[in-house]
Each structure stands twice: as C-alpha cells, then as structure tokens.
C-alpha cells in the first residue's frame, strides 16, 4: 500500500490537505471558550449540509454505527416495532442492531441491487392500522451495492399511508456527496459519519434530529449514557460537551463544512455525479455493469462493479493492494466475490479517478479478464474532458 | 488561549510531536493488511502498559465514558447489583451511568478528598452472603479531587470477603502515568482513554478484559452493538475491525506504547511522581494544600489545590485563560469553586511545569491571594534540580 | 533537548503552529500562477514590515549571511571602500566578508557592548572628502552582545557630513521585532532572515533595496549569479523566479507578514519590549547585568547576560541543554564565556519566558551562582502581570 | 492547481509523507549536539548516494544554481579557462554563470537533444597542450531536453588526452534517480539539489568534493563567503555549521538518504527506469518522440516530448494546469513551444504516472492533437503490469 496513491474504498476518503491540517492541532481546553469557537460553527455548518433549519445536530466521538445506535436508543423502547428493508450489508447491519437492542423489526426483504421498495413500505405502513411501527429505517445509499434509495419517496409513501412513524435515514455514505434534504424530506433522524462526504478521518458520528425525534427521547427507555441526546443537548447550549470531545476532528469538521458551503452544495453534488459518471462509462467500456439494478439507482459515491462469471471480484482488490499499492473495496455479504467496489466520494480530481480506473484495468488484465487496457480510461477521459468546467474546477 | 503554551488540564494532555505526526496520516484501507500492521502492535503494547498477559485489549472509537459503558453493558444484565463508592465527579458519573442502565448500585458515600474506603467495601461484600453483587466498580484516580485509590487493597478486601464479584477499574487518568497492575491486582476490566497517559487526542476508549470478563459477555443481556466485545474479539483475530476504526489514533497509540516501553514503565511512573512532587511543594509554599485528605492519596497526575476561604478557584482558571492564555482545570461538583486543578500527566518537562506554576502564581497575585510571587516556583525548582537525573531526562 | 520546551536562542525562534503548517506544503509548480499567488503577497507584506514604499524586496533561498553577500556583491566593485564599526561577532563577520570580497574596509573598532559610534562614523565620513567610501555598513542589532544601534542616528550623521555613501543595515535580528523604518531612516539595503522576527525556519535571506541600491547594481563588478539582483528583479515582474524557489518558506512568509500586520507592527514591537523588560528585571534580580553598556542600547530581541567573575557562561548553556533540555545561546568571540544569551524574539508568551528564566535559575543554582531560586522569576512575573493587556494578548 | 494531484514537473518532485514530516520540525539549537545527531547521518548518507568514499559532502542552504556557483568560486580564479558543451538550458546557464564570474569558457556548441560530445571534448583537451583548461563542466542530465550524458565517457576522454583538468558535474536532476559513481567516474565536484532525486523541498545545494577539488580551494581567488568550502569544512568537523543551517531540510535529507539506501540504490535506479520506460512507450503510442536524439540518451528522470508541427507544447502545460489542475513542464530556450516535459523522478507509483499520462492525453485531445484517448495509457499499463515486481514494490 502506498501513501502516495489515492484510495478508492467507499470511505474513509482521501483527506484534503487543509482538512488534515485542521484535524492535527495542539490540545485546547475543551471546557474553555476556545472550544466553543470551534464547535459552534461546526454544528451550524452541519445543519446546512443536512438541509435542516428546524433540526438539532449532535456529534459523538464514534462512527456511523454508533450513530445508528444513538438514533434508536434515544427514541425507542424495548419491544417497539420498526420497519426496514434489507437490500445490502449496511441495511442488514442496522436491522441486526435493532434486534440486538430488543426491537421488533418488520423486515422487507429486497434483492441486493435494488433500493428501498416504496410500494412495499407503503403497504406495510397501510397494514399497520394500530400504528405499532414507531419508525421507518432507510439506508439512503447502500454502500455494499452502490444503490441509492428515494428518501423523498419514502416520506411520500408514509404520508399517503397517513402513518405517524418517524423516518430515520442512514446517510453515512451519501450526506455531503449527494443531495440530502432533511427538512424537505421529513427526515427525523439523519445519521452521517465524518469519514465520507465530510472527508475527515473516521471518529465522529454526526446526527441531525427533527423536533419529533428530540421529543421522542423523553419517553424512550432503551438505556444509553454515552450516546444520550439529553446530555448532549443540555451541554451544547453553553458551547460545552458532556465528556471529552474529539476536538481535532470537530475542528476539521468546521473546515469541511466551510469548504462544502464555499463550493456550494449543488456544485459538490454535481462534481460527485460527474466523477461517478466517468466511472460508469469506464465500467460499460469494460463490458461490465454496476450492481445497481437500474440507472436511477446508481450511487454517485460508490460503484459496485459486477465481475463476469468465473471471476472473483475480491481478487482484483487483493491484487491492486499487493501489486499496485491501491485500495478498492471488496464485495460484502451476498455479493462477496461477485463485485468489487470503486469508491468515488469526497475530494477527487479527474486525474485521481483515472489513476484508479487505470489500475483497476491492469489488475483485470493480470487476472485474465476480457478487457482492453485503456478502454475504460478512454471512456472516462472522454466524459471528463467534455464535462469539465465549473464542476471540474470545484475539486481543487 | 495560546497554542504555544502547554496545557495543565487533567487531560487531554500535551501531545508530543512524534505522536501528533503518527496520528496525522493519510487514509489507509482498514480492511487491508496495512491496517493490521498498525493495529496488532498497538494492542500488544497496551497489554504491556496495563500489566496483563492473560487479558484481552479492546479499542473503541469513543472516550473513557464509552469505555465505562462497554464495561457494564458487556458483562451485566438489567437488575444486576454493583458496588461502588462515590467520592468525586467521575465515580459519581459511573454510578449514574449504571443506574441509567437499570443496574442496582450499592453506593458507599465517601467524603470527596478521600479514596476508595477499603473497610467499607470489605464490609459490604461480607454482608452480601448471597453474592448479589456482580461487580465492584473502582475509580483508580479520581480526577476531580486528585485522589488515588488502592486497587490492590480492594482486591485484597474482596479476597478476604471471599466474594466472587468482578473488579472493574476506571483507570482513565492513571493508566500510563501511575503504576497499574491488571493481572497482579486481579482487575477484570480496566478502562483507559487515549487522551491521558497515552498522550493522544481524545477519541479512543481502551479496555483490558480478564478471562472472567470475557466469559461474562456470554450471559450479559444489557443491549449493545457499537460497544459489543463479541464483534470486536471476533474481528480482531484476523487483524480486522467490526466497523471503521480510527486508524490515525491507533497509529498514534502504537507510537505511544512504544515510547512508554522504550522509556520503561517504572521510569514513566517515577517521572510523573517527580513532576507531581514539585507541584505539591509549590502548593505548600503558597500556604495551601491538595484536596486529597492525606499524602498517601496524592495523585501523580492531577493536583486539586484547595483555595483559601473567601476565594473562588474557578476565578484562577478563568483569569489564566483570558489573561495568560493558559489552561488549568476548574473544581467540579462538590468542590466547585473550592479548588482549582493542575493537571500534570503525560509528557511534561521541568520547564513546562514551572511555566504552569509561575502562571498560577501570577493569577493568584492578580486575585489578591496571600502568596509571594516566585515562592512556589522556587520550591519546585529546588525539587526539580535536586532530583533531576534519569527521570528528568526521560521526559525528552 | 526536548522538542516540547521553547527555545531561547537568539534565532531561529519558536515557530508558531500556523506558520509551521504554512511551510509544510505539497509541491506546487513554481512556474505556474499558483506560485505567483503565494509570492506576491509575501513580497508586499515584507515591504510593510521593512517600512518601505519606494523599495524593492528580494528573497533568496539562503540565510542572513547570504543576504550580506548579496548586498555587497550587487552594489560594489573590488577595491571599493566601505565604512563599518566592529562591536560584536556579527559586525565582525560582515567586515570579514567584505575583506574576502576584495573591498577596502575602514573599520572603527568599538568596545563590545557598545553600539554603532555615531560621532566616529560622522568623523570618518567628514574626513572622506573624496567620497571614496561607497557604503556605510551598520548592524542594527548586534546579536552577540544584545546591543541595538541607532540607525536613524547614522543616517543623520551621514547627512550632516553631506556624504553620498549608501547605508546598508544588517537587520537580521531586529526586523519584525523592533522598530525599523527603511524609508524613514534612509536605508539603502536592509538585510533580514526568515528565522528571526519572521518566525520561520532558516532558509530565506530577505532584502529590501532602495532605488539607489537598485541603481548601483548596474555598475557593480563583483561577480555574482546566484545572488544577482538583476535576475531576481527581471523575473519577479511576472511573478516568477530565476531558479527554483523555496516555495514552502515563501508560503510561510506570506503567513508571517499577515500575522505581523494583523497584530499591528507597533503592537509587535511593544510585545517584544514587554517580554524583554521582564528578562532584564530578572537579570537585575539575579544581581547581574546585560552586556549592553547602557539601557538605551538594550536589545528587545536578545539579552547577553554578563556572568559574575569566576563563572563561565557557556556552562549554563551546556547544563541547560543536557540537564533540562533547554536551549540558550553561548557567548561568542570576545565575550565567549563572559556572557550567556537569552533570546526573546518571535512569538513568546509570558509563560514561555518564565519557563526560560526558571530554567536559567536552576542552572545557575546548580553551578553555584550566588542567586536565589525564584528571584528572577518573581521580578519578571511582577512585570508581566502588571503590564499585561493588549500587548500580552497579542502573543496568542 | 490541486494539491491532490501529483506533479510532473522535472523537480521539485512529489514529496513522500515521511519526508514532509521529517522536514516539518520544531526549532532545535543548531549549535547543540542535537543538530550534530541530525547532520552527520545526512552527510554520510549523501556520500553513499554520490558513490564516494574519498570525497567530502557540503550542504548549502541554497539551490542547484548556488551549488554550481560554489563549485567554480571555490576552485577557480578569474581568467581561468573551463571547457563546457552547451546543449540545453542548464548547460547554458552554467556557462553563463562562469562568464559572469570572469572565467574564460571554451564552449562546444552541441545540438539540443544530443548529449555531451565525447570526441569534441577529447579533441579540445588534446589541443590544450598548455593545460590552460582547469576544469571540464558537464551536465549529467540536461533537464531541458531529457538527455543524459556519459560522464564515465568524459572521464575516459580526459584520461586519453592525459589532461589534468578537474571534472565538475551538474547532477542536479540525476543524482539519487540515475546511476552516479563519483569515485568510479573520477568526478571532482558533483552538484545536486534537494528537490530532485532526494525528494525534498527546494532549499539545499548538495555537493560532493574530491580531494583534488578540496585542494583547489586553497589557490582559488574567486571571492566567496556564503559559499566558502573552507568555512564549511572547518565547522563540519565538530558537527557544526558556519551560519544558521536549514535544520528541517537536513533532517529531511537524513530521512531521504536512509530511504534510498533501504530500498537499495540499484533498485531506485531500476524503478526510475521502469517508470520512464512506460512514459516513453506512451509517447510512442501517441505517435510522438522524445527530444533526446537517440535511445541511449534517454533520461530516466524527465522526458521532453516533441509535439507535432503546428502545435505549441506550452499550450498543453497551460491547459493541464488550468483545466485539470496538473503540472507538467514547458519547453525552455531553443525548444520552447517545441516540446512539453514530463518529469518522472522521485517517488512515483504506477498509478500516479498513469494519472499524468491520462491527463496529458485529455489535454492533447482538447487541443486537437491527432491522438487516441487511452492509447498512451494502454502502452504504459502494458509495460507496468508486465514489469511489476521488486521495482514496483519499491515505490511504496
């Protein structure tokens, strides 16, 4: 593995120079106003990225997994029912967590490669006349399959079913990279992590809470202390923290949200789409296809590439690491071996992405894949050079 | 607040240059062997620092508070009884967490400034003929009062009472700075954090587990996923992690444990004692005294200085920050206002400590304390120059 | 030597965090506009610090010594006469350089500890009816003795003598720390280095040139290429450089001059004076005195402390390094052994300076000096706490 | 320009993470043993890289240009004759410098694109019966044209002519990247810079001196002080420096030479050759050719690519910077516009190089060059994947 190559795992991302420097800071007293001067702009910036005015933002020194746990343990009680579709490793893991916390999960099994099944969700809600379902859990971007789901559509389904459940969204691998409208979509809890669209090292769970989610914490009886929203909200008011915060990461987050807003969120999303589209054209040029079942499901942050029959996608990842010092993602769970994954989120230039595609090609050629060296690169080059412009410049 | 001044809060500590650089690293694939090459030496080094051969080490991207929660949620079930003494803010918080998690806490109220009451603990255990008490919780170094407790003594009391309870120790502000013998003292779970004796930024909870603690996780029914030992232990075996680890902090930890072992743990402890003793001599020269009730309780990582009647210790902390850009710790809980705290853990030179003492003196003079400028500094200087030697050099 | 202690050598100084980060940058193409965007503000800021509107600024990847050489080799020819007073190691070295370059140096020998002898300079110029003297060389702040000279006074002496010589000033250890008025004082060449008042690592010679100095380069016949002003001025016009520049240092310089201007130069000078005065009060409390012959000569960037008879100042410096990991400066040349030097330039807080004084006291006590521990510290504390205010805050 | 893209200028190179961290250090006292502990291994390592046991190494806080000046000013006197061939911008500049220093340069004009003309050199030396020629100046790797010269061949020509001249070699863009044998080739002065094969920022001139070169300094009368070998050699003996050294760069150099030796110099050279060969295959696939007149002249550190009639190579460089944030080198002097240059020295992975080639292709397509997107990339991929092995791994 070379520190000089970019990484193409679907997070953590490549960390921009300025963010690395913001995270690497001397110790400051987290009980002093110096901390508040770092913390408050970070919180405000996250709200902007989440697309919420009404919501609260909470930061835990944790990861996306911790963010999921905070979401359920602060709003639900043992025996409560939640509704969730399973269509990838990360939707699966959240379901598993709910079960381990004593929740009753109504699971809609959905083929991997598809997104959240709106009709089935609506049907399940409509069937729940007694409103046992307390929350709908949705994975916005399923990192395992490179599939994005229609969160606005879920909200509409809930509205059509006139169901009062809350809507909890795992936006770990979408927020900051793909359009997300917490208020607009009626999301009650949005869960993100520092190491994806925010381009930071792992170590922060980032949550947005709607007023309804905040209210739910008063009645929830699942035990929590480290992840307790109440301690957080009480101390945040004064710019403080209930225990020792990860000051460097929060300083990096303040920088990150400023960068995203300076670029303009629409430009950030357009940039991700443009880079992703180049990857998809390369995949097509290789005669292969994304795992996502249809083009409207294509994720702009990660592409799970289905490898031809007779090949094991994991071999590409191993070879890339060993021979070329480059990191891609393996297939997980049901699609283990069947895909390899190219992460393309965070700060990436055309040149970086082409380096990744060229390396993937070398690995495939080494392994006997029926591809032509340079073919995918050429397809991506063609797209990049013709679409360069404001979106291309934004990456700098 | 100046980034150029050392901090004298009782953690996070000043971060040595080499550790800052180890933490500040480019993204590596945490599913690759590159991560295992960082992770395994970190785990091994922590075992050495904890003083355990039989134990397991678990790292969470979290803090000491998360470490406490992991300790109880992995080993206990709702309604279980634990025994704990309350004699400071951090022992209080752990008790509060247990109660919020549905545990029955048998509390031995103890004056702040005293340590864990061995006789009372032994009595409580002896009285528990039915062995309802599943664990004894002990705060090794109460950061609020600067008091260390006799953990070996607690184990002896447990043995004398022939009680099978487990022994859980909060060593957050002691481990890596003061002698700690996990195996020798029969500790079942030791909880530490990255930002104290390990000299890292906050962001890692570090736990040592005895075989008994590991066994307890099979029967514990408190819910946990993020903090689940089982997921950790299963993935560690292959050098992996159940979710995205904080790779930079773990790389810093690998550096830290190497530094501590290169210096020699005995030397590390002697260095902390020597620096602390200088602080205590300064306090005496000011005509003041530590909050700790007797000299055998003096912590070598933090001194809570009792201020004279009519003064508010918090004013010193505020003035130091505002006027001199230096961070000390305020009094917490019962001793709020009655003390101010000088942290002296981690990597400190004589010169740094003297800068802290000299600044505290200026603040006290500014606030009208009956002290003589330079008096405390002189007492510390005298101690430092006469005790310099291997311990002094070790700080470099 | 500990990286954690501040240094008290009279340069290089302690480097503020933000400047270290500015210097540590990835490679950029020095022939691209990206370089010009760094370079131009750096040049403009240096002009402000030098106090010149009419002058040009030139930066060499070199040191102050190189700056001296550039000054003479670009303006003078073999056999030319210059006038210089020798009263310390750095005035001596510049004279030596002139002689090695074939110049005829008219030397005014002056006791070390005194400043530039205005009357003798005026007399020498008055006696030079044929105007053989092409330049007067003056060391603004003699780092060896901690003596500042009256540059404005030299200009007045030149004017009174109606002598057309140019005035070249070594401001290496004064510029950016003590008042300097290039235009106001009629300085033709000002020489500075990156590692003093600009708080950067060593590696840049920084020169200001008056229009007369620029004109002189057309007739000067001393050979030079690396140091040739002509190549520099020709390429600067387009934001370029005649060879590979030290981009990181120039980026750091851009940051430094912005910091100095944000603080306000008058505040920067007041801050240095205040810190220096605390050192001088400590020296007096030790029963010792600065090497500078009178208080009007006291440098605000370095104090050469005369040690008592029977002691060798170099021993303090050695002991401080070996036993306490702290750096002071030894005596040089005529005052070797007779003094030790405390550098107090660049970014220093009260606490840092007190750490230095406290450590010097420990060394002196160790060596048997007749001082009282804490006495000098107390004198400085008294000064600092009573003079704190805007100047104190400025250090942050 | 994006900080995230690698650079492909022919120096400064991309800086490996570990070297950036070595350069970015706190201030240490350069008069203390702490400096000597950094300095001595750096000097020893440079000797190994230069291939000298008999020689001395001198480091100036300067650049390659300063290194040239030091070479001539320390060994020659005004009016001395030197012999040099001119076949590129850097050989031209050295000749120009000699002339500006009053030397008599016997110039062998040679077409750009060719290397040092061995026969003409031998003839010139043979014709110099009186041995007026004091030194032969040779540019090992002409960065402007991407041409390497046969230094061993020059030495043989000198030997055949039985001429006692010294041999001075500009190895700025070859040393550390291409085979160099100072002792084996009878080189008297070798000049290198920090920002090429040593992978550091610009700021150090690095010279190797044979005993003959050292002896020559006693009789040379060209003036020099900053660049005086005598001051350097006198102070180095004690681990010191005649003025303030660039400590961070020297620390980085110590790291660099250790890295080069750990990898093995033969492996370093093989790695550069392999990367360069991929570039040349890409150039051929584009239907273009290197500026170097024949394949034995191909430089392994930079390729000057001759653009087709009707195109201006500078446009590629401008477009790459503006549109894709990537840096290549323009043509200089006689070949301005006729070539663009791809630097491929220092630490480069296959993936980085492919990113550069892919970007160059996009620029050429944008400008209407008759190339096929992906064609050059494919040719390089083919070479890299078939030649990967120890040399490929060495880049990590």
Automatic annotation (TrEMBL), chains A, B, C, D:
GO molecular function: transaminase activity
Requisite cofactors: pyridoxal 5'-phosphate
Domain of life per record: Bacteria
Stretches assigned to the Aminotransferase class V domain: 28-329
Keywords, sorted A to Z: Aminotransferase, Pyridoxal phosphate, Transferase
PANTHER family attached to this UniProt entry: ALANINE--GLYOXYLATE AMINOTRANSFERASE 1 (PTHR21152:SF24), AMINOTRANSFERASE CLASS V (PTHR21152)
Family under the similarity heading: Belongs to the class-V pyridoxal-phosphate-dependent aminotransferase family.
Name of the protein in its database record: Aminotransferase class V-fold PLP-dependent enzyme
Species the sequence originates in: Albidovulum sediminis
Lineage: Bacteria, Pseudomonadati, Pseudomonadota, Alphaproteobacteria, Rhodobacterales
């Amino acid at each position: 593995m070379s520190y000089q190559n970019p990484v193409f795992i679907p997070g953590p991302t490549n960390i921009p120079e300025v963010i690395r420097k913001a995270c690497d800071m001397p110790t400051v007293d987290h009980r002093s106003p110096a901390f508040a001067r770092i913390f408050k702009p970070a919180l405000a910036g996250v709200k902007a990225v989440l697309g919420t005015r009404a919501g609260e933002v909470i930061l835990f020194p944790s990861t996306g997994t911790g963010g999921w746990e905070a979401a359920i343990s602060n709003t639900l009680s043992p025996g409560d029912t939640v509704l969730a579709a399973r269509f990838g490793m990360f939707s699966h893991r959240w379901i598993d967590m709910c079960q381990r916390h004593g929740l009753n999960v109504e699971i809609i099994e959905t083929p991997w490669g598809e997104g959240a099944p709106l009709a089935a969700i609506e049907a399940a809600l409509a069937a729940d006349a007694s409103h046992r379902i307390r929350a709908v859990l949705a994975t916005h971007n399923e990192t395992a399959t490179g599939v994005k789901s229609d969160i606005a559509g879920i909200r509409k389904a809930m509205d059509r079913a006139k169901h009062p459940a809350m809507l909890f969204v795992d936006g770990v691998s979408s927020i900051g990279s793909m359009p997300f409208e917490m208020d607009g979509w009626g999301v009650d809890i949005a869960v993100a992590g520092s190491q994806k669209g925010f381009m930071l090292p792992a170590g922060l769970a980032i949550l947005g809470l709607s007023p309804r989610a905040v209210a739910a914490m008063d009645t929830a009886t699942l035990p929590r202390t480290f992840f307790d929203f109440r301690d957080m909200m009480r101390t945040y008011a004064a710019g403080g923290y209930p225990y020792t915060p990860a000051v460097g990461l929060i300083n990096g987050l303040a920088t990150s949200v400023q960068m995203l807003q300076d670029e303009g969120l629409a430009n950030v999303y357009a940039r991700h789409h443009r880079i992703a589209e180049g990857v998809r054209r390369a995949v097509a040029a290789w005669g292969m296809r994304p795992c996502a079942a249809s083009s409207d499901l294509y994720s702009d942050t990660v592409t799970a590439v289905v490898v031809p029959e007779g090949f094991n996608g994991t071999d590409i990842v191993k070879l890339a690491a060993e021979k070329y010092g480059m990191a891609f993602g393996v297939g997980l769970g049901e699609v283990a071996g069947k895909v390899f994954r190219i992460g393309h989120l965070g700060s990436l230039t055309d040149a970086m992405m082409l380096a990744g595609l060229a390396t993937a090609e070398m690995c495939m050629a080494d392994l006997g894949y029926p591809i032509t060296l340079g073919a995918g690169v050429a397809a991506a080059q063609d797209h990049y050079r013709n679409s360069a412009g404001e979106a291309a410049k934004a990456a700098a």
